[in-house]
Amino acid sequence: MTGRAExxxxxxxxxxTLRPGEHNHALFLRGRTxxxxxxxxxxxxxxxxxxxPYAVQRPGTEVVGDLVTPAAGEYQELLAxxxxxxxxxxxxxxxxxxxxxxxxxxxxxxxxxxxxxYLAAGPVARELERTGTRIPGGDWLRRxxxx
Length: 147
Hints:
GGCT-like_sf; alpha+beta; Gamma-glutamylcyclotransferase; 3 helices
């Protein structure tokens, strides 16, 4: 044993370029999922980034996205690939652009699920709260402007 706990095999809540129809969905998720369903992340706000969004924790708001369950046999490889894509290097690492955290999301039918969510890391989140452009309604697919 290495002493390092393996992460729980949770589905992923995706809210930006990994959503169905977006370019990173085609690159990373197409053909590798068992289920994809609409969901919402409570107590978070969405900010526009350089071609992709950032979710930041904030009570009383929500982010629109999809709950994605990896297909059998895809979880570990997909977890590693998404960690690299999101520039997540591990818990509390200073170079993280996003932190991968377990959160409760709401399905369209009102039920809840635990899922991995990539939230803007602390320094990124603080800068976004000061100078970022919030996406109205928390939905990347309905953001204003080109897309």
